[in-house]
C-alpha cells in the first residue's frame, strides 16, 4: 500500500480572554459554566457595594472600612473594548517613559496586553525597583501589591492602583490587631521573644506572605522577620530557621504547610493559629513543639481545586501532567505531579519540548493565556467552572484608561501611599526578601512521586 501524505491541520488559535469566554457562556453562545453570571457585567456595577465582587472570593467576608472605588465616568463605562484599547495606547504613547505599567499574571488579557512588565508578585516587586526615573507606576494587580511598589519606589514616584476596590481576601484574613494579639499570646508561652537560646535562636521568626498589608509587613520588619512569595518561600523559611526556633507564617496556611512539609517538617509540628480562639486554638504543648505556626488564612482561588478534579483529569487525559500552585490544599498538592509558583508553571510549560497535556491548578486568566500562547500543547484549568479572582478582575481597561488619561492631564488618580511609620520596618522586611533569592534552579517547586 503506497504511503499517504497526511497534512495535519493546525489547531484554531485559542482566545486568551477570559472575559470573552464568560460573555459567551452567559449569552448562551458556548457550552460552559461560570461561578457567577455577574462576572459578565462591568466591575463598576459593584464599586458601591460592600464585598469583593463576583468571582472566587465572593463568599469571603470583607472587613469594615475596606477601600471603595468612586464612580468611573460614563465615557469609560460605555466605551467599547476597541475604543479603550486605542485610548490606553494613545495615553501610554503620550506619557512615554514617565509611566511604567505593571501587570500581574492573573490580570485579564485586555489589561495584560498594555503592561510593560508581566509577572508574579516577586518579579513585579523587582520591576518596581528598575524604573527610578518614572514619574508614575501603574500597578494592575491588587492593593497589597501597589503598597509594596510604593515601599520600594522613590518617594516622589506615584504608585497608582486603577481600581481601589481591588483588594485581596487572603490578605484581609490577617489584620494588624489580630497579629499583634497573637504575638502577645505567644510571648506568654515562649517568654522574651527577643532572647536567644543556647543555639543563638530566638523563639519565633515572623514570616508573612507577600499577600498581606503594609501594616503586617511593618510588624514583621519590627520583629526581625521577612516577607516571602510563592517563588522564594522555601528560601525564606531556610533563612528564618537559621535565626529562630520556629516560624509564625501568615496569612496563607497552605503555602506555609506545603513548603514546610516539602522541607521535612512533620505535620504535627505545624499547629494552626485561629485568631478567634485563645492561643489560636492550640495547646501549650503543641506550641512548645511547633516548628511552623500556620495562620488560619487561605486563597479562595486555589481552594477551589480538588483531588477529584485531578482524578478526573487523569481519567480523561491519560499521561496528563498536573501542576498546581502551592496555595492549594495539601491533599491537592500531594495528588499533583508538581507544585510551584505562577512563574514556575509558566516556565514548565515553556520548557516542554514535546506536545503535552497540562492540567493546571491556578487562576484561570493565566491558564487561558498559557493555552493561547502554546497551541502545541493541550492546556486546561483543573476547575471546569470559570471563576476568576474576584479582586484581580476588578481591574478593567476602563479604569486603566481613566488613570492613564488622568496622568496625561496632569492629575494623579488613585495614588497608594504607605505612612512613614509603617513604611520603614515594612521596607526592611521586603529588603530581606529581595536579598533571599532562590537558587537558579526552581527550588521553590517540588515534584511528587506519582
Describe this structure in words.
The radius of gyration is 22 Å and the shape is globular. The strands form 3 sheets. The chain has a 5-stranded parallel beta sheet with strand order 6-5-7-9-8. It has a 5-stranded mixed beta sheet with strand order 13-12-10-11-14. Strands 2-1-3-4 form a 4-stranded parallel beta sheet, with helices on both faces. It is α/β, with parallel strands linked by helices and 450 residues long. Helix 4 links the parallel strand 1 and strand 2. Helices cover 37% and strands 13% of the residues. Helix 3 runs parallel beside helix 16.
Summarize the structure.
Keywords: 4Fe-4S, Cytoplasm, Iron, Iron-sulfur, Metal-binding, Pyridine nucleotide biosynthesis, Transferase. The protein has helices at 18-27, 74-77, 81-95, 109-112, 121-129, 143-152, 176-190, 214-222, 233-241, 253-262, 284-289, 307-316, 330-335, 342-351, 364-373, 397-408, 420-435, and strands at 99-104, 117-119, 136-140, 158-160, 202-209, 226-228, 244-250, 272-273, 292-295, 321-324, 338-339, 357-361, 378-381, 446-447. With 450 residues, it is α/β, with parallel strands linked by helices.
Number of E strands: 14
- Strand share of the residues? 5-15%
Instruction: Work out the radius of gyration.
Output: 22 Å
Q: Into which percent range does the helicity of residues fall?
A: 25-40%
- The computed structural class is alpha/beta
> Mean pLDDT score, rounded?
93
Q: Give the number of helices.
A: 17
Q: How far is the N terminus from the C terminus?
A: 43 Å
Amino acid at each position: 500500500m503506497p504511503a499517504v501524505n497526511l497534512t495535519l491541520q493546525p489547531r484554531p488559535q485559542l482566545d486568551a480572554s477570559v472575559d470573552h469566554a464568560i460573555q459567551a457562556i452567559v449569552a448562551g453562545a458556548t457550552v460552559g459554566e461560570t461561578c457567577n453570571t455577574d462576572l459578565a457585567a462591568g466591575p463598576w456595577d459593584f464599586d458601591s457595594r460592600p464585598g469583593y465582587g463576583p468571582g472566587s472570593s465572593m463568599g469571603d467576608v470583607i472587613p469594615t472600612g475596606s477601600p471603595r472605588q468612586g464612580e468611573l465616568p460614563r465615557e469609560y463605562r460605555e466605551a467599547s473594548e476597541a475604543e479603550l484599547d486605542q485610548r490606553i495606547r494613545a495615553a501610554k504613547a503620550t506619557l512615554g517613559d514617565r509611566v511604567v505599567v505593571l501587570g500581574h499574571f492573573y490580570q485579564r488579557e485586555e489589561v495584560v496586553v498594555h503592561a510593560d512588565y508581566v509577572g508574579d508578585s516577586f518579579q513585579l516587586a523587582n520591576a518596581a525597583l528598575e524604573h527610578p526615573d518614572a514619574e508614575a507606576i501603574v500597578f494592575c494587580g491588587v492593593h497589597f501589591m501597589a503598597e509594596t511598589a510604593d515601599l520600594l519606589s522613590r518617594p516622589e514616584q506615584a504608585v497608582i492602583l486603577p481600581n481601589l476596590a481591588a483588594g485581596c481576601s487572603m490578605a484581609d484574613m490577617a489584620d494588624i490587631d489580630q497579629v499583634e494579639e497573637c504575638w502577645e499570646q505567644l510571648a506568654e508561652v515562649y517568654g522574651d521573644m527577643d532572647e536567644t537560646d543556647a543555639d543563638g535562636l530566638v523563639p519565633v521568626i515572623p514570616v508573612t506572605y507577600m499577600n498581606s498589608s503594609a501594616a503586617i509587613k511593618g510588624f514583621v520588619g519590627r520583629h526581625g522577620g521577612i516577607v516571602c512569595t510563592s517563588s522564594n518561600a522555601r528560601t525564606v523559611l531556610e533563612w528564618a530557621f537559621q535565626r529562630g526556633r520556629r516560624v509564625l507564617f501568615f496569612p496563607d496556611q497552605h503555602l506555609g504547610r506545603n513548603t514546610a512539609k516539602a522541607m521535612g517538617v512533620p505535620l504535627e509540628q505545624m499547629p494552626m493559629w485561629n485568631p478567634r480562639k485563645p492561643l489560636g486554638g492550640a495547646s501549650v504543648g503543641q506550641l512548645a513543639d511547633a516548628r511552623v505556626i500556620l495562620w488560619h488564612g487561605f486563597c479562595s482561588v486555589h481552594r477551589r481545586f480538588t483531588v477529584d478534579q485531578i482524578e478526573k483529569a487523569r481519567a480523561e487525559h491519560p499521561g496528563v501532567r498536573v501542576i498546581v500552585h502551592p496555595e492549594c490544599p495539601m491533599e491537592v498538592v500531594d495528588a499533583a505531579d508538581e507544585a510551584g509558583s505562577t512563574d514556575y508553571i509558566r516556565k514548565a510549560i515553556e520548557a516542554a519540548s514535546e506536545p503535552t497535556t497540562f492540567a493546571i491548578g491556578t487562576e484561570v486568566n493565566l491558564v487561558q493565556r498559557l493555552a493561547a500562547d502554546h497551541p502545541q500543547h493541550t492546556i486546561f484549568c483543573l476547575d471546569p467552572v470559570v471563576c476568576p479572582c474576584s479582586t484581580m478582575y476588578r481591574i478593567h481597561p476602563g479604569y486603566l484608561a481613566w488613570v492613564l488619561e488622568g496622568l496625561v492631564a496632569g492629575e494623579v488618580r488613585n495614588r497608594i501611599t504607605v505612612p512613614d511609620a509603617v513604611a520603614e520596618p515594612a521596607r526592611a522586611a521586603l529588603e530581606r526578601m529581595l536579598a533571599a533569592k532562590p537558587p537558579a534552579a526552581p527550588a521553590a517547586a517540588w515534584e511528587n512521586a506519582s
